[in-house]
Design a protein that fits this description.
Organism: Bombycilla garrulus
InterPro entries: ARM-like, ARM-type_fold, ELMO_ARM, ELMO_dom, ELMO_domain-containing, PH-like_dom_sf, PH_domain
GO molecular function: SH3 domain binding
Distance between the termini: 60 Å
Strand order of the largest sheet: 2-1-4-3
Radius of gyration: 34 Å
Largest sheet: 4 strands, mixed
Helix content: 40-55%
Keywords: Apoptosis, Phagocytosis, SH3-binding
Number of domains: 4
Pfam family, one: ELMO_CED12
Shape: flat
């Protein structure tokens, strides 16, 4: 018979003693369990001891986490957290360098445990760490252990970052600004400042003043990938915590220093593969930069603003320069107004007598005007050709420049998610963004010429305006999905994807849809589904066996901590555990924690997950909700919480877990994969029927023959 749920069979080790195999009663107080274990080894003062996991993070066992202990766990009898905290508190104050270094090293390791951290902090241990840093007498390995211990202790949120002294902060800043200092110390210092910045605006100002953008750019140019990553993390933290005006000022300065070109050359196209963390920071930098356009996008044109009116007039003057040079006295005021209105109509404004009205819609607001002016000033020949070419066409067939520009700006804002908050986990950035200053404006210049080209290819009239813009949106999104590395490559590809190509793609998709709607084909689809669904189930389980690297995300910041989870080859146990950065596929033996599949009760997703309920419900967490899932297991309903790195991983893991639970696969990826497999299988099955129309109704069954004498009688042969 299996043991009761409140009893787990475990092994307990101690240095120099034979291990004990015991049945741990979960209802029995932990103090009593420790007393029994100590008595078995004849150890007095059981209160001075504690149990901790022998493998992995070696977490201390407490009344709050004892339910996590699984059958077969190996524990170790060790000094209790309060005794260890007291010993290390004294050790880090020792005059003996070796004792002090060893104590700090042990402290850095144990501080990951919340129970130990609480005990150490309660003894005013952080004050001693402050003193070591502020006095500045220690360096090298000792200082690195000190900073690591401080980082781990602060991670538990027992102490506010705002309690740090000015001297301590300045010392951390000085390590970042020093040239002759160990890289590990600079990495830890950058990480501490990154944690500090989002907690208060006062700390943001202190760090911004202490660590200049020039210094961060120096670290970004380092050959040490980890130092580069930490510098980028601090830069992103500063940008996200800044006010709009400060962010604009910082981005302008970074543009002057050609940060985009540097990132494009030395990070994106580096010989080293781009990690998930750096990919996320590049996405945030792209998002922050593009969101600088939000202010202009949401601002309607003010017809009384002389500056805005001048910009509008410059469009007309650039396009019709020779006509505008006529002396002022030549025409009457009415005649001049009529001429201006005619020119604004040729420019494609709907309200040619008052073109400012066209720009009152926000979004895209003044951003559309900025784009038109940029196009006219930076590519005057292309601008003049666009306007004059269309003004010479028939009224019905002219492509309206202004109207197209306004709609195109709105389309680009939607595609590039301008005005939307940064995702906490996304990594999707466009490499070409970092290869070009004035990216948005340059992209507009390419796309507005694409509008004119597509308009001509479609032989469009004014009534077709929405259709043309729909095709242009499709051309842009299809090309961006190919992730072109430069704007030149984007321009080549988007122009190659002409209207006839779009029609071919649409026709192919439509024909595929139509041929799969015939009644016999639908029946064949239904017969093939079970077999293909089983194939998808096997693929999902195979993916779980390969495992995935997950990140731990707190409400405070994006964590560097990683953990790995994978299914055993026999599909009976889920193994998981913490791993170090850079470990791609750890062996299953190195993952110390495990959950038997038989103990899994339920799968929760999105808002139902306990770790999403703890987080704030702002827009920032929308993407986390879409990637969150939890496994409920054991009778106590303990949860293992996940946040998938991508939507693709979320779909594969939730499907795989549903298969293990004996439930249907419900992700959108299942339907996509099933459609692809059905399509391929149907094409193979129907290959011999190409160019043969499939009737909706089956052919009639012929009448039976008048006699069956042609049938062979086996019964007579046997006699």
């Amino acid at each position: 018979m299996p043991p009761p749920k409140d009893v787990v069979k475990i092994a307990i080790q101690m240095v120099g003693a034979i291990p004990q195999l015991i049945e741990l009663q979960q209802t029995k107080p932990l103090a009593s369990v420790l007393k029994d274990v100590c008595d078995a080894w004849s150890l007095p003062n059981a209160e001075r001891y504690a149990l901790q996991y022998a493998d992995g993070r070696q977490t201390y066992i407490t009344e709050s986490n004892r339910r996590d202990i699984k059958n077969g766990s190996i524990l170790r009898l060790t000094t209790s957290p309060d005794q260890e905290a007291e010993r290390l508190y004294i050790g880090i104050q020792s005059k003996n360098v070796d004792v002090k270094t060893d104590s700090l090293k042990k402290l850095a390791s144990l501080s990951q445990d919340v129970t130990f951290a609480q005990e150490f902090i309660s003894r005013n241990g952080l004050k001693q760490i402050y003193s070591i840093v502020e006095e500045g007498n220690d360096a090298g390995e000792m200082l690195a252990h000190t900073l690591k211990a401080f980082t781990e202790l602060m991670e538990h949120d027992f102490v506010s970052w705002e309690n740090l002294s000015t001297v301590f902060i300045k010392k951390i800043v000085s390590y970042v600004n020093m040239n002759a200092v160990d890289a590990s110390i600079q990495q830890l210092s950058l990480s501490i400042l990154e944690n500090m910045v989002p907690t208060s605006y006062l700390l943001f100002e202190v760090v911004k003043k202490g660590v200049t953008l020039d210094r961060l750019l120096t670290h970004l140019q380092a050959t040490n990938a980890q130092l580069q990553l930490k510098a980028m993390a601090l830069l992103i933290a500063l940008l996200l915590s800044a006010t709009d005006a400060e962010r604009q000022e910082m981005m302008d300065y970074l543009r002057e220093k050609n940060i985009r070109q540097f990132i494009h050359k030395n990070i994106i196209h580096s010989s080293e593969p781009l990690g998930d963390e750096m990919a996320h920071y590049l996405y945030v930098l792209q998002s922050v930069s593009l969101n600088l356009c939000e202010h202009r996008m949401k601002m309607s044109m003010d017809p009384y603003s002389q500056e805005q009116r001048d910009l509008l007039q410059s469009l007309r003057q650039t396009a019709f320069e020779s006509e505008s040079e006529v002396p002022a006295g030549t025409f009457s005021t009415e005649r001049r107004k009529s001429l201006c209105a005619k020119e604004f109509r040729k420019l494609g404004f709907l309200n040619n007598s008052n073109p400012a009205e066209d720009l009152r819609r926000a979004p895209p607001g003044l951003l559309a005007l900025d784009n038109m002016v940029y196009f006219s000033r930076n590519t005057p020949n292309a601008y003049s050709r666009f306007v004059l070419e269309n003004s010479s066409r028939e009224d019905k067939h002219e492509c309206p420049f202004a109207r197209s520009s306004i709609q195109l700006t709105l389309i680009l804002c939607e595609i590039l998610h301008i005005g939307e908050p940064c995702s906490e986990t996304a990594q999707a950035f466009y490499p070409m963004f970092f290869g070009q200053d004035h990216f948005f404006e340059e992209l507009f210049c390419i796309c507005i010429q694409l509008v004119n080209k597509t308009w001509k290819e479609m032989r469009a009239t004014q009534e077709d305006f929405d259709k043309v813009m729909q095709v242009v949106r499709e051309q842009i999104t299809r090309t961006l999905s190919l992730k072109p590395t430069s704007l030149e490559l984007f321009k080549t590809r988007v122009n190659a994807l002409n209207y006839s190509e779009i029609l071919k793609l649409r026709q192919t998709e439509r024909l595929h849809q139509e041929e799969t709607l015939a009644v016999p084909v639908l029946e064949l689809r239904e017969k093939l589904k079970p077999e293909l669904l089983e194939l998808i189930r096997q693929q999902r389980l195979l993916h779980l066996c390969e495992g995935t690297l997950f990140r731990k995300i707190s409400s405070r910041r994006r964590q560097d901590k990683l953990w790995y989870c994978r299914l055993s080859p026999n599909h009976k146990v889920l193994h998981y555990g913490d791993v170090e950065e850079g470990v791609q596929s750890p062996p299953i033996e190195s993952l110390s924690e495990k959950i038997p599949v038989a103990d899994m009760k339920m799968l929760l997703v999105g808002k139902e997950c306990p770790h999403t309920k703890e987080k704030s419900s702002g827009k920032q967490n929308k993407d986390v909700l879409e990637l969150a899932f939890s496994i409920v297991h054991d009778v106590e309903e303990y949860c293992l919480n996940f946040i998938a790195p991508t939507r693709y991983e979320f779909c594969l893991w939730t499907d795989g877990l549903n298969v293990l639970l004996g439930k249907e696969m419900t992700s959108e990826r299942t339907q996509t994969d099933l459609d692809v497999l059905l399509s391929m299988e149907l094409k193979l099955r129907l290959l011999d029927l190409e160019n043969i129309s499939i009737p909706d109704d089956p052919p009639p069954i012929p009448k039976p023959p008048s006699n069956l004498n042609f049938c062979y009688d086996f019964s007579q042969a046997e006699q």
